Amino acid sequence: MAQRAAGKSFAAIAKVEGVATDELLAAATKIGTAELDAAVKAGQMTAAERTQVLSGLQAHLEEELTETHALPADGGHGYGRDGDGPQSSTGTGTSSGTTGTGYQQ
Fold first, then answer.
1. Could you read off the pLDDT of 6-35 as tens digits, one per residue?
2. Which terminal Cβ of the chain has fewer Cβ within 10 Å, N or C?
3. Which of 99, 97, 89, 105 is nearest to 35 (CA)?
4. What single-letter DSSP state applies at residue 94?
5. R_g over Cα of the chain
């Protein structure tokens, strides 16, 4: 997280660790797909919604893995997707109408 806070992308961090961007993308896609499947199984989204989200998942993850979020001068507030701190592209579960993939339902 310190490297992310310093402005490095997940892809850049992975590269230093010997993980190719394609491998990172494949792993993130697998996690995102599993989260969507779990959301459908739990009744948190429909199969049609899953299909719609899945259609743009790879492009969304490519963007998430290559973008950076440096900490602002105020010590860390305001650098997330909604200005409310860090956001995970592959978090767990479903909360407030979004899956861990960052897509709105």
1. 899 999 999 999 999 999 999 999 999 999
2. N
3. 99
4. E
5. 14
Place of tokens 């948190």: 44
CB 69 within 8 A of CB 79: yes
36 contacts 101 by C-beta, under 8 angstroms: yes
Q: Could you tell me which of 99, 61, 77, 100 has the C-alpha nearest to residue 5? A: 77
DSSP-assigned beta bridge partners for residue 95 = 98
Cα–Cα dist 71/59, whole Å: 25
Q: Is 82 within 8 Å of 88 (Cβ atoms)?
A: no
Q: Which two tokens stand for residue 33?
A: 């797909």
